[in-house]
């Protein structure tokens, strides 16, 4: 009894090449054909967080340049990059949920396993709206400062 329990619930880490392997129509049956939807959902939920992280780092770099140059246009670009990063995070969460739901349609959960989402999933669900709020704040700040900057130019000319 102990061996079958360990075989069912044992966590296994995957290598990078195993992350990109094809998913099959019948999980575990290599002769059943490739399930393209599950394969690409898995790949997207693996790659999109890295794209989001890259966009956030690039946005931070542009934001730093905006502070140094005292220009408004990099602030707008930082807001747009935060928006794209939020979309990537939301896409990653959506791909994960869709892939898990498709897998649960094909396989039954063992009796001793609960199919609940963990804390990292909850953090990902919270981070997407926070990225959208950061994006809105950057774009709003750039828009507000542009009005004040235009008024300052008008006073200088007068």
Short description, anyone?
This protein has 5 helices and no strands. The protein has 158 residues and is mostly helical.
Can you walk me through this structure?
The chain crosses the membrane at residues 46-69, 81-105, 117-142. It is found in: Membrane. Its main location: membrane. It comes from Cebus imitator (Panamanian white-faced capuchin). The protein is mainly α and 158 residues long. The protein has one domain: Butyryl-CoA Dehydrogenase, subunit A, domain 3, CATH 1.20.140. The protein is 75% helix and 0% strand. The chain is built from five helices and no strands. It has helices at residues 2-9, 16-19, 36-69, 73-106, 119-157. It is elongated. Residues 1-7 and 151-155 have low confidence and may be disordered.
- What spatial form do the alpha-carbon principal axes imply? elongated
Please tell me the total number of domains: 1
Q: Label the CATH architecture.
A: Up-down Bundle
Report, as a whole number of angstroms, the end-to-end distance: 88 Å
User: Which structural class do you get from the secondary structure elements?
Assistant: mainly alpha
CATH topology: Butyryl-CoA Dehydrogenase, subunit A, domain 3
Strand content: under 5%
Unreliable spans are: 1-7, 151-155
Largest sheet: none
Measured as a percent range, the helix fraction is over 70%
Return the string of H and E elements: HHHHH
Rg value: 23 Å
């Amino acid at each position: 009894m102990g061996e079958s329990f360990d075989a069912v619930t044992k966590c296994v880490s995957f290598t990078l090449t195993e992350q990109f392997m094809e998913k099959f129509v019948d999980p575990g049956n290599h002769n059943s054909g490739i399930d393209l939807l599950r394969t690409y959902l898995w790949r997207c939920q693996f790659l999109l967080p890295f794209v989001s992280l890259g966009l956030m780092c690039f946005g931070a770099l542009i934001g730093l340049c905006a502070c140094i140059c005292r220009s408004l246009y990099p602030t707008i670009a930082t807001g747009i990059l935060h928006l794209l990063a939020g979309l990537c995070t939301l896409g990653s969460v959506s791909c994960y949920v869709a892939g898990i739901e498709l897998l649960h349609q094909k396989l039954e959960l063992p009796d001793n396993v609960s199919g609940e989402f963990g804390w990292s999933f909850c953090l990902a669900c919270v981070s997407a709206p926070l990225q959208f709020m950061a994006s809105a704040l950057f774009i709003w700040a750039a828009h507000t400062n542009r009005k004040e900057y235009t008024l300052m130019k008008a006073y200088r000319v007068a």
